[in-house]
Structures are given as structure tokens and as C-alpha cells.
Amino acid sequence: MLLRFIPLLALSAFAQPALAQQTPRELSTVPAPALPDTTRPAAPATQPVLAPAPTAPAPDPRRAPLPPANTTRYAVGLKTGEVLRGYDVQVRSPVFGRMFLLIDGQQKLDFNDVRYYEDETGFYVRTTLPGRSKRESTLRRDRVGRISLYSITSQQYMNNPYGGYGGYGYGGYSPYGMGGYRTVRNEYFSKDNGPIEDLSIRNLQLATTDSPASQQLLADARRYQRITTLSYVGAGGLLLAGVLSSFGNSNSTNGFSVSPLVYAAIPLAIVPLVIGGKSQNSVKQAVLLYNTGR
What we know:
Keywords: Signal. It is built from four helices and eleven strands. The chain is α+β, with helices and mostly antiparallel strands. It folds into two domains: 72-119, SH3 type barrels (Roll); 121-292, no CATH class. Mean pLDDT is 76; it is low at 18-24 and 161-177.
């Protein structure tokens, strides 16, 4: 009898685990965590796409606002120390009478009472020229600094076929071949608002002794000036000798023959045209270096 129940007991022992797996899980039990899938690559994190910021339209230069109107009043300094100001300053030169300044079309000032004035063309100073008579002249200020540059422009009649020195204040040489009225520009300078001096290399060397760089440039300018003078003298001498030789060698049989000395004078006459401007540039650079303190 007992042997009959042994197979039933064994069958029930195997059936209980299977039935336990088919029964629903209780709500209070915690599920086991799922293992990550390492066979698939991780998806990259996507950044949010931002919309482009709106750009302002480019301004139209034709519609840009204009600068404010210039309402600066020009200054007129008198020798008494008084300073007058006006919106319009004019120099009047009547046919009969003396020159005068006219301020705003109403107030007249004699030039002998004016120390300086400014108008729409620049700044002007009334002063006596160095080494000249006591008569005052009007100089235009071209550059401001420790060394301020001034100039005066006038019409002069020149009948010297070789021109002359002093046309530019520091040795400009003008080889003009005929006379006539020409515009001559003489230049001057003053150091630290001192007296007016001729703009010559020698005067500038005395005024810039505390600047080695300016002294070197002025020495170069003097060398260029010396070469220019020697070239003109040599060209003139060769040309004169060539002309005399040409007339001396000419005869009625062979006719007029040009001497080789005339052709030799041509290169010497070209040399000043090549290096003539270097002297002026060296002087300007020396003044610029001195004013900037370099």
C-alpha cells in the first residue's frame, strides 16, 4: 500500500516549483534590477539647437548723421593783450589806404595794432623778420611744437639767370634762365615761442643741440646741400667752357661743332634734381623728431 503512494509523492514534489513559478508575484516584492545591455553602443547626447540671433541691418552711410556745425569763433590778439573773437575775420587791402582786419563785417582793426589773428585759412602772426628793417610782416604758422614753423609767400621779380639762395629759407637754389615775377616762399621758425629765426641749417643746428638724432639729419641735409652747390658750379663751368670751345673750333669748312664738354655738363646738372629734395626732407624730419622728443 505504501509503495503505491511513493510515485504520487515524487510527482507532487516536482510539480510544486513549477506551480510556484506560474503564480503571480506579490505587490510587496521588489523586482530585480535589469542588467545593462553592453552589446549596443551608447547613443551620443544631443545638444539643443539654438536659433540664430537676429542681426541688425547695416547702417546706410548715406543716411548717417552729419557732424555738428562748427561754431568756433576765430581769435584776434591785439598788442595791448586784449583778445577779440568773431565768426568771420577778413583781411582787406583797399586800393587807397592801409590794410586792416574786418571782424564780422563791422569792426575794423589796423594791422599795426594786431599781434596775431586766425581765419578760415590758418593762424597768422605779425612780427619783424630777422636781420631786416623794423617793418612788420605777416607770417603764416605751418606747424606747432617746440619748434614752430612759419612761412611768408610773396611775388618777387627775379632777373638773375641762376636764381639765388634763400628761396626756401634753408638754401633752396633756383636755376631759372630768365627774369620775371615768381612766387617766393621764405620759411622761418621759432623755438619755444621765442624770436623768429631764418630756417637755415646752421640756425636749426644751434637750436637742436640737445637732440643727437636731429643733429645727424641736419648734417645729412648740409651734405646734400653742398653736393647740390658743387654740381651747379661744375655744370655751369663745363657748359661755359664747352660753349667757348665750340665757337673756337668751328670754321667755315666744317661748320659748327658741339664740344664734348657741353654733354659732360648734362649729368652734373641732373644731380641736383635727384638729391635736391633730400635736403628739404632731412630738415623736415629733424624738426619732426625734435618736436616729438625722439
